[in-house]
Amino acid sequence: MSSSSSIDQPNVITCKAMVAWEAGKDLVMEEVEVSPPQPQEIRVKVICTSLCRTDITAWESQAIFPRIFGHEASGIVESVGEGVTEFVKGDHVLTVFTGECKTCKHCESKKSNMCQVLGLERRGVMHSDQGTRFSVKGKPVYHYCAVSSFSEYTVVHSGCAVKVSQQAPLEKICLLSCGVAAGLGAAWNVADISKGSIVVIFGLGTVGLAVAQGAKLRGASQIIGVDINPEKYEKAKCFGVTDFLNPNEYNEPIQQVIKRISGGGADYSFECIGNTGMVTTALQSCCDGWGLTVTLGVPKTNPEIASHYSAFLSGKTLKGSLFGGWKPKSDLPSLVNKYMNREIQVDEFITHNLPFEDINKAFTLMREGKCLRCVIHMPN
């Protein structure tokens, strides 16, 4: 047991949180009680949290309410639970929606980042005891992805937080706790893009543009961006996109256009929309023999993927990607260092900065396609 956990006896904290009471309805600012961290947990003062598309997908459709959403965040450790030796009060951290216990079969393998102990939590509770650390007037409020960063304070498992340099700006690096890291990792870890290759990206939101950045840094010769919003092209060029295709402007399937301008198909294609029909299109946009499609999006509907067997008979590959293949504790500190050394772009993804009370405006901006990332700043 660390000395801080034996000396400090954390109490319940009452703070402000944005609570979702119903699917698709505005979040409501509430006074919530946040329990002390239990064994192997830490309580974090959230400094900044950014809105991710996955939050919106879950808010629109999932049945677990009331709930505190948010998972892409940075903060400062307020207190630690029994048995926590890795963190002390005052440490700067990123929260992560998928953890790293470092001892399970997957954590010990170099082939996977799918922790068997602290993987994606879908039931709105803590990993350790299947309970919640939030309540409003004595009634439980559920978590999201075991993070719930739309609250001034939150409790996470110590395996779902990553200690970062205190010199790194928390209002920027919160993006590395999900979207930007997921896109870079899909390009570098999952696809392992080679120099001189042709890449096509479906969906030019934060994740798609992070894939483009990763492809550019790997020396891709052509990076084709596909999106129905023409306003995204100028921003996409900043991240390395060389060609912009709007499917609504063509009278033929977009995969045929891609095959024509790429000389037979892309070496790598990435589906970053969350549309399983688009996965098939992405597969068809790849070249025969070695074409690789990576799917990153989370679908709202129709989760099954359908594709003709001939795509695989011709040597194409379809791969999934969770958090870009990064092991969060092992790998995220090096990504933060790359940002600090100006080797990767992060600031350029931030299109809006909003105070905590305006979080519903962030939801509207993202739903209308008017932002990449809104960073929500918590009260001091």
TrEMBL record:
<dbReference type="InterPro" id="IPR013149">
    <property type="entry name" value="ADH-like_C"/>
</dbReference>
<dbReference type="GO" id="GO:0005829">
    <property type="term" value="C:cytosol"/>
</dbReference>
<dbReference type="GO" id="GO:0004022">
    <property type="term" value="F:alcohol dehydrogenase (NAD+) activity"/>
</dbReference>
<keyword id="KW-0479">Metal-binding</keyword>
<keyword id="KW-0862">Zinc</keyword>
<keyword id="KW-0560">Oxidoreductase</keyword>
<dbReference type="GO" id="GO:0008270">
    <property type="term" value="F:zinc ion binding"/>
</dbReference>
<feature type="domain" description="Alcohol dehydrogenase-like N-terminal">
    <location>
        <begin position="39"/>
        <end position="164"/>
    </location>
</feature>
<dbReference type="InterPro" id="IPR036291">
    <property type="entry name" value="NAD(P)-bd_dom_sf"/>
</dbReference>
<feature type="domain" description="Alcohol dehydrogenase-like C-terminal">
    <location>
        <begin position="207"/>
        <end position="334"/>
    </location>
</feature>
<comment type="subunit">
    <text>Homodimer.</text>
</comment>
<dbReference type="Pfam" id="PF08240">
    <property type="entry name" value="ADH_N"/>
</dbReference>
<dbReference type="InterPro" id="IPR013154">
    <property type="entry name" value="ADH-like_N"/>
</dbReference>
<protein>
    <recommendedName>
        <fullName>alcohol dehydrogenase</fullName>
        <ecNumber>1.1.1.1</ecNumber>
    </recommendedName>
</protein>
<dbReference type="InterPro" id="IPR011032">
    <property type="entry name" value="GroES-like_sf"/>
</dbReference>
<dbReference type="GO" id="GO:0046294">
    <property type="term" value="P:formaldehyde catabolic process"/>
</dbReference>
<keyword id="KW-0520">NAD</keyword>
<dbReference type="InterPro" id="IPR002328">
    <property type="entry name" value="ADH_Zn_CS"/>
</dbReference>
<dbReference type="GO" id="GO:0051903">
    <property type="term" value="F:S-(hydroxymethyl)glutathione dehydrogenase [NAD(P)+] activity"/>
</dbReference>
<dbReference type="Pfam" id="PF00107">
    <property type="entry name" value="ADH_zinc_N"/>
</dbReference>
<comment type="similarity">
    <text>Belongs to the zinc-containing alcohol dehydrogenase family. Class-III subfamily.</text>
</comment>
